[in-house]
Design brief:
This protein is about 40% helix and about 15% strand. The chain is built from eleven helices and nine strands. It has helices spanning about 25-40, 60-75, 95-105, 115-125, 140-155, 170-180, 205-210, 230-235, 245, 270-275, 280-300; strands at about 50-55, 75-80, 105-110, 130, 160-165, 185-190, 200-205, 215-220, 255-260. The strands form two sheets. A five-stranded parallel β-sheet has the order 7-6-5-8-9. A four-stranded parallel β-sheet has the order 2-1-3-4, with helices on both faces.
């Protein structure tokens, strides 16, 4: 694969803890490189000899597999680090762990509960730290969503994106990305389930959010750690499901996204999830390509491509 000459933008050493901490140009660089990597039949060994640590405290399918495969495609080695098997579980501090891992690794991805833990790692570590999900943010998912939307519509400018349901960490990261890159974002959530960021536009009526929207997005009603609240959450979120009736209110060429795992019959109807307007499986695939782009840019400073026309 022949990559363009480097631009002035250099992301080597940068951590990705929240979408809002990166500029529009930096987010564009990730998306453009992700597009290049996806389109190429080659697998450039941009991280040959490097090592990526995966410190995971929560279950994962797409995040773990996409990061491990991304590392392999780029020539790096991924080392899985279950949180309960590290000295962190016996009281070693985050700061000391970050100092030690910086001596062994070239980058560290962290999937954990508290955003503060990722921020602390990033502030102390001498290597890039990537947020692989916290209770507050999921930047890697938002980047894959953006890549999927651009593939379908050719741009993010002027695209209306409607979130339906619980205002989760994925909702927050996607809203931040839309604000940076010119997409319109609105969230339909019941009282008490709004995203915590007051800058995100929230309505109560899902139909009002979805009307004319180009993209409909949802997430599970019961996230990891909320299992004891299942009955209450299902009652509260009833009526906030993306079903054929709600989808019919959107633009004719609208697509549907879901970060997965899905619960058909709750936040999304089965015939929508598996229907012709679903881009969910492209979205899941794009977790790989955006992960490769983030790692290449932050570890090796792979050439950032020109801003998309």
């Amino acid at each position: 694969m022949s990559l363009p000459a480097p631009l002035a933008l250099d992301l080597r050493g940068r951590s990705l803890t929240r979408i809002r901490d990166w500029t529009a140009a930096e987010l564009d660089a990730v998306l453009n490189l992700a597009d290049e990597l996806k389109a190429s039949r080659e697998r450039p060994r941009l991280l040959e000899g490097r090592t990526l640590g995966l410190l995971f405290r929560k279950h994962s399918t797409r995040t773990r597999v996409s990061l491990e495969v991304a590392a392999a495609h780029l020539g790096a080695t991924a080392l899985y680090l279950p949180g309960e098997q590290l000295q962190l579980a016996r009281g070693e501090s985050v700061e000391d762990t970050a100092r030690v891992l910086s001596r062994y690794l070239d980058a560290l991805a962290i999937r954990t509960h508290q955003q503060a833990e990722v921020e602390t790692f990033a502030s102390v570590a001498a290597i890039p730290v990537v947020n692989a999900l916290t209770n507050e943010a999921h930047p890697l998912q938002a980047l894959a969503d953006l890549q999927t939307i651009r593939e379908r519509f050719g741009t993010l400018e002027g695209v209306r994106i409607a979130w339906v349901g619980d205002g989760t960490n994925v909702c927050v990261s996607l809203a931040e990305a839309c604000a940076a890159l010119g997409a319109e974002f609105v969230c339909a959530s019941p009282d008490g389930y709004e995203p915590p960021d007051p800058a995100i536009a929230v309505v109560r009526d899902p139909g009002a959010a979805v009307g004319g929207a180009h993209v409909l997005v949802t997430d599970v009603w019961v996230s990891m750690g909320q299992e004891d609240e299942r009955e209450q959450r299902v009652r509260d979120l009833a009526g906030y499901s993306i079903d054929p009736g709600l989808l019919a209110l959107a633009a004719p060429d609208a697509i549907v996204l879901h970060c997965l795992p899905a619960h058909p019959g709750e936040e999304i109807a089965a015939d929508v999830l598996y229907g012709p307007q679903s881009a969910v499986w492209d979205e899941a695939e794009n977790r790989l390509h955006t992960a490769k782009a983030v790692l290449a840019l932050t570890v090796a400073g792979a050439p950032a491509l020109a801003t998309r026309d």
